[in-house]
Amino acid sequence: MESPQGQALRCIVKMGGAAITHKDEFESINVEKLSTTCRQLSQSMNASCNTPINMDWSRGDGAPLVPEVLELQGNSICTERFIIIHGAGSFGHFQASKSSVHKGGLETAIGKAGFVATRISVTKLNQEIVRALASEGIPAVGISPFSAGWSTRSRALEQYEVSMLRKSLDCGLIPVLHGDAVFDSAQGCTILSGDVVLRKLAQDLKPLHTVFLTDVPGVFDRPPSDKDAILLEEIVVHIDGSWKITRPVILSAKTGVETVTAAHDTTGGMAAKIAEAAIIAVSGVDVYIVEVGTQHALEAFNCTSRHSLSKEWVGTIVRASS
User: Is residue 153 part of a domain?
Assistant: First the structure.
C-alpha cells in the first residue's frame, strides 16, 4: 500500500554530523552507524511491507545492481511519512571554516572557492546517505536547501520553500535535506545549519515528534567526557522560552548545561542544538535526543508519543510545559 496523500507527517529525523561521520577524519563516513540507522529507519517505515526493494541501482564497487522487472512485480513500497535531515560532520565544516563562508565574502576569490567547495562536500555526503537509505528500501530523494531557494539575512533564516517537500511526501518519497551553504541578503552567503532546517520544518509541518541522533546518549549537564556528567532525561520548555530540567530530580534547580564546540564547527555545536530543540518543543512537537545506532534510537523512531517510550529508554526528551 502506498503512502496516501494528506497522511500526517510521522517524524523528522536529524542525523547529527558527529553521529554518522568520523568528525576528526576529513570526509570520512561512519559506515557502521549510518548502515545501522538506515536499517532501523527501514524497519520503522516499512513495518507492514514485504522485503524492502534495493533502490540504489548505481555503480558502487562492482556492476550496478539493477533488478529484473519481473523481480519487482507484486512488490509494494509503503513507507511512513518521514523527513530526514543530516549534519555535515567531517564534510563541509572544514571547507567552510577554512574560507570563513559562514561570515560571507562571496565577492572574494576565497569566498567563492569556499562556497563551492563546501557545497561539493555536503552534497557528496547527501548522495551517500540517500544511497544508503535507498539500499534499505527507502525511496529517498536528496533536496538541498540552496537549490530549493532557502536563504538567510544576517545568518538568520529569511526565505524557505517547502512545496517540493510536500509534493515528495504526497508521492510517497522521503526527502533528505542537509546543512548547506546558502545566499545571505546582508553578507552575501553563510552556512545554514541542519538544526535550523529541522526547526523550521517542525514548526511548519507539525510531525508527531522529532528525533536528534547524536554520538552520545543524550544531553548531559556538562561534556559527556567528564566522569561526573549526568544525563538529562527530560527538559521542559515554557512558553517564554525558558526551560527547566525535570528529570533527574537532583538537577531540577539547574537552568543551564556546559557544552563544547569543535573549532571547525561553523554551526554552533550542542548549545545550538539545545536552543533549536527548545523552539521546536514550544511549537508543540516533542524532541527526542538519543544515541545513534542503538535500540533506543529505534524505539524513538517507532514511538507514537513520549508516553509510549519504555522505562528502559535512554535519551533526553525536550517537551513543552503542560
Answer: yes
Q: Is 209 among the domain residues?
A: yes
86 is in an annotated binding site: no
Reported as a single tens digit per residue, the pLDDT across 95-119 is: 999 999 999 999 999 999 999 999 9
Residue 2 lies in a domain: no
Q: Is 320 annotated as a binding residue?
A: no
In a domain, 4, yes or no: no
The CATH code of the domain that includes 154 is: 3.40.1160.10
Full residue range of the structural domain in which residue 57 is found: 11-61+72-320
Is 238 one of the annotated binding-site residues? no
- Picking from 138-152, 175-189, 214-228, which range would have the lowest pLDDT averaged per residue? 214-228
User: In sequence order, what are the residues at sequence separation of 6 or more whose Cβ sits closer than 8 angstroms to the Cβ of residue 240?
Assistant: none
Q: Report how far residue 60's alpha carbon sits from residue 51's, in angstroms, rounded to the nearest whole number.
A: 22
Q: Which of 146-155, 188-197, 247-256 has the lowest mean pLDDT?
A: 247-256
Burial of 172 (0-12, 13-18, 19+ CB in 10 A): middle
> By percentage, how much of the chain surpasses pLDDT 70?
84
| Residue 93 annotated as binding site | yes
Structural domain total, the chain: 1
d(CA 290, CA 277): 13
Residue 89 counted as an annotated binding residue = yes
Measured between alpha carbons, how far is 168 from 164 in angstroms, rounded to an integer?
A: 6
Q: Which of 11, 3, 5 is nearest to 202 (CA)?
A: 11
> Which pLDDT score, from 0 to 100, does residue 52 have?
78
